[in-house]
Amino acid sequence: MSAALLRRGLELLGAPGKQAAKAKAKAKAAQAGKLRNSAKGKVPKSALAEFQKREQRGYLGVNLAFMTSARSTVPESVTRQILRQNRGRKACDRPGAKKKKKKAEGTVFTEEDFQKFQQEYFGS
């Protein structure tokens, strides 16, 4: 950061009162003059804007306060009733809907029937 930008920043953030007001007006006039004399399309950065950009404010506390204040206002009894009504509505929760496993079916043919078929079909 150049010394001029640093001085300008210190003037803008200086002590409150007449000197600060004069310094702000002087800095504003100087900046307006520089804007006119700047290269096309290039705007010089303000020291105050740079300071505010670098200053990182933590919003964690504000966000936590908002989140905790926006809690649900529904009574606990209503919540329990909704949960009770929705329990068991799926097909897999119904007692009669469960499919029974079929046990492996045995064959109706005996080993002798297979031997007979093999002799008739293959001719051996």
UniProtKB/TrEMBL annotation:
Keywords: Nucleus, Ribonucleoprotein, Ribosomal protein. It is found in: Nucleus, Nucleolus. Belongs to the AROS family. The lineage of its organism: Eukaryota, Metazoa, Chordata, Craniata, Vertebrata. Transmembrane segments: none annotated. GO terms for molecular function: enzyme binding. It comes from Pipistrellus kuhlii (Kuhl's pipistrelle). This is Active regulator of SIRT1. The keyword Nucleotide-binding does not apply. Residues 24-46, 85-105 are annotated as: Disordered. GO terms for cellular component: nucleolus; ribosome. InterPro entries: AROS (IPR023262).
